[in-house]
Amino acid sequence: MLAALGAAAEDPFVRARENGLRWEEAAAAARRVLHAWLKHADPKTLLLPDRLPGGSRGLKPGAPRVYTPHNSGADLYPYLILTAHLTDPELYEGRMMEMLRNEIRYTTAQDSIPADLNLDTGELGPPSLFGAGEYAKDGLVAVTERLGRTPWFYRMTDMVADAMHRAPVPSIFGNLPASDSELNGDFLQVLVRLWPMTGDSRFREWAHRIGDAYVDEVLPGNYGLPSTKWDFTAHKGDTQVRLRDHGNEIVVGLALLYALEQEQRTPRAARYRPAIARMLDRILESANPDGMLYNVIDAATLTPINKGLSDNWGYVYGAVYAFYQATGETKYREAVRRVLANLVKYRNYDWESGSFDGYADSIEGALYLVAREPVPEALDWIESEIRTMMRMQQPSGLIEHWYGEGNFNRTLLLYMDMKSQGCRPDRWVPGLRLGAVREADRLYLSLEAPKGWQGRVRFDYARHRRVLNFPMNYVRLNEFPEWYAVDENTLYRVRSAAGAERIHLGSELIAGVPLAPGNWVIEPLGKPPYGPAHAAPAK
């Protein structure tokens, strides 16, 4: 009996079917958030306030309803777009697009730079570079990483260019967006995507401007670490290093900028490397014995100023892993694998004073990393913590009545991709379960659907190369990891458990092929799919 149970557990289709169950639960929860928030959209503009009445973090009595590009636009709207794309395609093509039109129509304050909009009075605030940076980095980047060059990509491109033209902080390197590591990091993370995507030299020059300011001034002037605040006129900072949000953004941006420079063997790559290495080494030195990072540390002594653990630990370790990918220095990979193995010590850890958002961010970071390093302890931890987060959803579909609920959906979508290995139906309907297991270059896929269902399944591809024009699949914040990425020009055998078989090009699988409910095996003929199950170092 035990042997039979063990054999069943090893059957990839059994595991794929279980993954499909988890996938459907997440899809249903995400759709409930989508429709709960749309009920509260402003009737004139269709835009969403950043808070709703009630809940633990909701709108206070008497406070106005406000659309904020740095909250409503950055953290909520984009993940409702992505949810609608999967669960309600007509909503995606209709109302979500109308929201973009109205966001441009009603919130544009200067060129394409947005501002806060009071939904009760119609009053528009001043142009907000912070709103532009956050909306681009946390919102529009994510939509582009997932869907490619949609209208939201063009919104991001022009908005960032207009914002950078008006960068207000003078420095010896040129004007910068801000004097803090958050907003400079926001723009840097977007610029390092837009530069290879567009070939526009302005984006590269702006990225270099920010990178040089930190590598040549801030890091050497702040014990090798980025200061939360830095006076580029007096050339000094506050010596605090924030390793959670509102501070760690520059670490992520610098690591990715270095990776792109290193790929091209530029003089900047040689100059940046020791500075980036020292920054990452000192951050790792500041961690607790399990490798977890504190919220805020002192740059000189590395002692914690805020002893809470950062729920953004995975974002920073993503930068560590990207540096490994660019250099091949294995100590950085080992640091990532170590912290992933220690996650089992942090079940039900209260990252953010009881809020679901701490779980959402912590799980998000883990998912970026296990896509490259499938450490068993981390995979097990993700399963337990995603269940804890999902239990926080109310029957209404809301969680805490604030804009961060978009992050709830973001993490669910990331988790669903892991469970389906990046496969997606052309639309989800209740009762549709899609799960997959990868073994080497073969994919075992389980598809369950309601009676009479007909549809297509789309497969993932090397978006880092085809969309971003990156030479390698570097870990990066606000990505959607590639799990089973098919190559457009490779032939694949698609075989049902019943024996039916057909051959498709990878490009056909990406566009979507009709599959009947049941078990399917997908395997390449000839060369394997583009990219391994997890990334190897570049050199």
Low-confidence stretches: 1-7, 530-539
Structural class: alpha+beta
As a percent range, the share of helical residues equals 40-55%
Might you state the CATH topology name of the domain at 177-346?
Answer: Glycosyltransferase
Q: List how many beta strands DSSP finds.
A: 19
Mean pLDDT across every amino acid position: 95
Short précis:
With 539 residues, the chain is of the alpha+beta class. Helices cover 49% and strands 13% of the residues.
Tags for this model:
disordered C terminus; 19 strands; five-stranded antiparallel β-sheet; three-stranded antiparallel β-sheet; Glycosyltransferase; 49% helix; disordered N terminus; 539 residues; alpha+beta
Fold and architecture overview:
This protein has 539 residues and is α+β, with helices and mostly antiparallel strands. Among the domains are: 40-166; 177-346, Glycosyltransferase. Helices cover 49% and strands 13% of the residues. The protein has 17 helices and 19 strands. It has helices at residues 2-10, 12-38, 69-87, 89-107, 129-147, 151-165, 181-198, 201-221, 249-263, 267-285, 313-327, 330-341, 356-370, 376-390, 405-420, 463-466, 506-511, and strands at residues 66-67, 108-110, 113-114, 117-118, 230-231, 236-237, 240-242, 294-298, 304-309, 424-425, 433-439, 442-448, 456-458, 460-461, 485-486, 491-496, 501-505, 513-514, 518-525. The strands form seven sheets. Strands 11-12-19-16-17 form a five-stranded antiparallel sheet. A hairpin with a 4-residue loop joins strand 16 (491-496) and strand 17. The longest helix is centred in the first third of the chain and has 27 residues, at 12-38. The model is unreliable at 1-7 and 530-539 (pLDDT under 50).
